[in-house]
Model the fold of this input.
Amino acid sequence: MSDADLDPATPVPARPGPIEAVVNVARGSLIGMAELVPGISGGTVALVVGVYPRLLDTGAHIVDGMRSAVLGPERRERTRAAFRHADLWLLGTLAVGMLAMVFTMAGVMRGFVEGSPEISRGLFLGMVAASIAVPLGMARQTPGGRNWVLGLLFLAGAVLAYVLSGLPGGTISEPSYLLVFMAAAVAICALVLPGMSGSFLLMAMGLYAPTLAAVENRDLGYIAVFAAGAFVGIALFVKVLDRLLEDFRKPTLIVMVGLMLGSLRALWPWQDDQGGMLAPDDTLPMVVAAAVAGVLVVMVVLVIEWVVARKAATTDPHPEVSALEDRV
Done:
């Protein structure tokens, strides 16, 4: 945390108006939906809907606040400053939307993914492919970086995501709470890392179906252990990613682009039971239509976010540069 944050005059996040709060709940719903679908990253959706930088910064301030509460000098002042600069209003409204989506749509999304695998993967393939334009646009507007280094980073991210998304999935019928805790700590990192799907990581670890079943059945013990693991994982990871975006913005964005591109492997519409890629079949026309629909959905969301950002810029006499304007 910067010492400048200790200055009471330092600007802090403002309380959103009713319309903005509703919009944030809708944004949270979209992020929550992404976390239910293997192959889609919640971080990708957070980028598309324009809250990724603020969400990451808020997470970093919360981690700073918890650390300051137990370590270092001026604990009380630094803890207060950290939490004062965390956008808890944004976090709260996003959480409402995410939780509402997870608890109401878990069964529906699982039914759609399992009942129409080719069409659902085609839809999500189009959405993720279109979303790659977001971090790519942000990287293009960020100066610096040697092309060959950026190329290697892009390739490394793409290969890593491709390999991980090709891991065979399975199901552990009765996972231990220790496994649930560790899996949640790993999978939650995908929430803040575009291109990595938390649901797919859970599937690869055999915990996707048990986790959705626990949510549907309101298994509070399982949910509590999962939440604890997720909290530990995100607390350890978010500060690292925030620092990377602050000090190495363009290379980090290029890695994100590679991760998103490589993760499309998990969304190839035609797969066997082990996740192996197959040739297209007679569902090709419907899959293409679904992919086009996915692209259009992302384009509509981006346009809406652009309109919201423009409106905010005209009504606020001292507007911050929005994440959307940074990337288009």
